[in-house]
Amino acid sequence: MLPFFATCPKGLESLLSEELQQLGASELQETVAGVAFKGELDIAYRACLWSRLASRIMLQLADFTMRDDMDLYLGAANVEWERHIQEGQTFAVDFSGGNNAITNTQYGALKIKDAIVDRLSKRRGERPNVDKRTPDIRILAHLKRNQLSITLDLSGPALHQRGYRQQAGEAPLKENLAAAILLRSGWDKGAPLVDPMCGSGTLLIEAALMAADQAPGLLRPRFGFMAWSGHDRELWQSLHAEATVRATRGLKQAEPVLFGFDQDQRVLGFARDNAEAAGVAALVRFEQGSVDALVNPAEQPGWVISNPPYGERLSEFPSLLGLHQALGDKLRDQFKGWHVSLISSSPELLSCLRLRPEKSYKLFNGALACELRNYRIAEDARAARPLAEDFANRLAKNLKVLEKWARAEQIDCYRLYDADLPEYNAAIDRYRDHLVIQEYAAPKSIPEHKARARFFDLVQATMAVTGVPGDKVVLKVRARQKGTEQYEKLDRREQWMEVQEHNARLLVNLYDYLDTGLFLDHRPIRKRLGELARGKDFLNLFAYTGTATVHAGLGGASSTTTVDMSRTYLAWAERNMALNGLSGRRHQFIQADCLGWLSQPGADYDLIFVDPPTFSNSKRMEDSFDVQRDHVELLRLLSQRLRPDGLLIFSNNKRHFKLDHDALAELGLAAKDITRASLPKDFARNPQIHNCWEIRWSQPHE
After folding, report:
1. Which end of the chain is flanked by fewer CB atoms within 10 Å, N or C?
2. What's the pLDDT tens digit per position in 244-293?
3. Is the dihedral of CA 591, 595, 600, 604 positive or negative?
4. What is the four-CA torsion angle of 617, 620, 623, 628, rounded to 10 degrees?
5. Residue 243: helix, strand or coil by DSSP?
6. Radius of gyration, alpha carbons of the chain
7. pLDDT digits (tens, 9 = 90+) for 308-336
C-alpha cells in the first residue's frame, strides 16, 4: 500500500476521514487541516474523483528529520525522482512551514529544487527544467519543527475547483466547504432544500451533485497525476467511466426539490450558468426574490440552508441586522417544522434570528473563522417578542416629542436618544432620513459579548421604531476622545448630505469621520452668534467646518475670519459658506496653529467664538494643548484681539472643567456662565455635554 495525504479546510478533518474510509482508505490519521491514509493507487484516484471535501490528494515521498539545510538537501536528494519525473518534464517546488534553520520558504524550495536537479542531471546527463506557473509535476514540502515531509501533488488545481463555476458573486463559498455544510446540516437528499440567498448557487449545485450521485471531479479536464510517471491510465479510465455511468443514471433517477432565491438578477444569471455547466440545471429552480418576500415554495418540510452575507465592516451591520431579523421572522412564519442551517463569521448576526440552535460547528471559509448553526423550526413557532421593549418605548416617546419640535425649529438634525437607559448605552442622532448610532464604550464590568448583544438589539429596535432602513443607518463606536481623534478618517466615501439648521444650509458627512461636521449640542450657540453678528467683525477660532461662521455670516456680520489647523476642514467650511451665498474678500479662511496665529499681531474683532479641543497634540502645533491647563493663556491671547465693547463666547466639552475666574479678573475680563441656556431641548438630559461662557471686559478698556 502507498502512503497518501489529503488536505482540507480546518474543521472538516473528521468528515474527510469518514469520506476517505468510505472510498476504501485505511490506516487513517487525522491532523490539523488534513488526513493521512494508505491504500492502493485506485484509492488515490477515487479520492481525487469522488472527494467532496478534500482540497488536495498527495503521494508521500519522504518524511525525515531536518535540523539544517544540509539535512534538507540530502533528504530530498535521496528520493528516487527518476521514478516520478519523466525526461523532458517540468517541475516546481512549493515549500511551507519553517524552523530555526529554514526561516525563508523560498530558500527551502530552492534547496529541494537543487537536490532534484542534481540527482536527475547525474542520472540522465540532462538538466530538468523548472516551471513555477504550469509545471507537469508539482512537489509540495512542509516543515513543522524539525520534521519535513515531501509529497507529490496528485490533484493539480485544488479539488474544490470542480470545473462548473463559470462566474461568481462576491465572496462565494468554496465548493468543498459548501459540501461540508450540506453534510453537517443532515440534509436528506430526497427532501426539499431552499437557499433564500443563493448567490451564484454553490450550495444548491453541490446538493444537486450529491442527489444525482455525480462525482465532483467528473468535469475536471486535468489532474496532477496525469503527467506522473507512475500514472496508470487504464485504471483511471475505468474509474472515470464508472463515475460517468453513475452520474448518467443518477441524474435520471434524482428527484430533489431544490430552490434558490436571490434579489440580484445578475448573480442569479451566474447561478443558472453554473448549474448548466455542472449538468444539473434540471434539478434546481432559481428565482429572483428578497428575504422580505420569501414564501415557502415546497409542499413538504425540508431544509433551509444558506450562507447569508456577514460583512466585515461596522458600516455594513445595520442592513445585515435587518436582513437577519427579517430572515428569522420568515423562518418562523413560512417554514414551520423545517430544519435550518446557516453559516456566518458573525455569531452576533446569527443571534439576530432569535432562534435557538440545536447544534453548532466551527468551520473556516478560507482563513475566516465561521460558525455553522443548525436549527429546527417548531411546528407551533410564533412571532418573536419585540426587542428591547423598554428601550423601544423610550425611543418612541422621544421621537414623538422631538419630531414636532424639530419641524417647528426648522432643523433636520437632532439627538433622539442619549443613553437614557443605562443598559442601552448609545447615542442616536437623526440627520434628515438617516440615523447615526454611536455606541459608547461599555464599562469593563460588562462582558463584551453581553454589551455587543444589547447594542445589536438596540440597533434593530431603532430601525423598527423609526422605520429607517438599514442602508440609512450609520454605526460608530465612541469612546472618550483625545486631541484630534474625533476628526480622524474612518472611511473614504465622500458622501455629502445637505441639511437645514434654522436659516442655514450645511453639509454633513455621516460616514468618513467619527464626527459628522456638525456638533448638534452647539446649535443654540450658533443661533445666538447669528443674532449677535449684524455689523460685527467675527472670529471663529478652532473653527472645524465653519458652521458657526455660516450663522454669523447669515446674521449680517461685516466680516468673518475662520481659523483652523486642518486644510480639510477649512475647505469644508468654505463649501458651507458658499452653499449659503457667503463668499468674497470679507470672508477669510486661515490654516494655522490657532495659538501660534493668535501670538502674532493681527486684527481686532467685535465677536469671537472659540471652541477648542479638550486636548490636542497635533503635529501642526508646536506644543500640546490642554483646555484646563491652557485656557487662561488662550483667553489672554484672545483678549488682545477683543475690542472694548466686544463679546467672546468660550465653549468646551471637558467634563468637570473649572473656569479660572480669578485669573480672568486679573486680565480685566468677566465671564457669565450660559451653559444651561445654551443647551438645546434634545440635550436636556445631558447637562455636561458642554460648558459655555460669555466673556466681556469687566470695565471700559482701550
Report:
1. C
2. 999 999 999 988 789 999 999 999 999 999 999 999 999 999 999 999 99
3. positive
4. -50
5. helix
6. 34
7. 988 766 667 888 988 999 999 999 999 99
Q: Give CA–CA dist 627/437, Å, rounded.
A: 28
- Dihedral over alpha carbons 207, 209, 213, 216 (to 10 degrees): -120
Q: Which three cell numbers stand for residue 441?
A: 464604550
Q: What contacts 514, CB < 8 A, 6 or more positions away?
A: 476, 478, 481, 485, 486, 487, 488, 490
Q: What is the pTM of this model?
A: 0.83
Place of cell 483667553: 635
Closest CA to 498 of 425, 443, 431, 591: 431
DSSP labels for 525-554? Answer: HHHHHHHH-TT-EEEEES-TT-HHHHHHHH
The CA dihedral of 168, 169, 173, 176, to the nearest 10 degrees, is -10
Q: How far, in Å, CA of 660 to CA of 662, rounded?
A: 6
Edge-to-edge strand list for the sheet holding 2-7: 26-31, 34-39, 2-7, 56-65, 147-153, 137-144, 90-98, 129-130
* Superfamily grouping for domain 175-216+253-376: Vaccinia Virus protein VP39 (3.40.50.150)
Q: Which amino acid is it at 32?
A: V
* Per-residue pLDDT tens over the stretch 667-691: 999 999 999 999 999 999 888 899 9
Contacts of 653 (CB under 8 A, 6+ apart): 614, 689, 690, 691
Mean per-residue pLDDT for 108-131?
Answer: 95
**Cβ atoms 523, 504 nearer than 8 A:** no
- As a whole number of angstroms, the distance between CA 295 and CA 126 comes to 68
Q: Is 678 exposed, middle or buried (0-12, 13-18, 19+ CB in 10 A)?
A: buried
Considering only CA atoms, which of 288, 306, 326 is closest in space to residue 469? 326
Q: Same CATH topology for 175-216+253-376 and 497-697?
A: yes
Instruction: Answer yes or no: are the C-beta atoms of 687 and 657 closer than 8 Å.
Output: no
Judge whether residue 72 has pLDDT over 50: yes
Burial class (CB in 10 A: 0-12, 13-18, 19+), 331: buried
Nearest to 85 by CA among 152, 30, 40, 28: 152
The full set of domain ranges for the chain reads 2-153, 175-216+253-376, 389-479, 497-697
Q: Tell me if the domain spanning 497-697 has CATH number 3.40.50.150.
A: yes
Distance CA 282, CA 245 (A): 18
**Sign (positive or negative) of CA dihedral 659, 663, 667, 668:** positive
2-153, which class in CATH?
Answer: alpha beta
668 neighbors 701 (Cβ within 8 angstroms): yes
Query: For helices 523-532 and 547-554, what crossing angle results, to 10°?
Result: 30
Side chain identity at residue 349, one-letter code: L
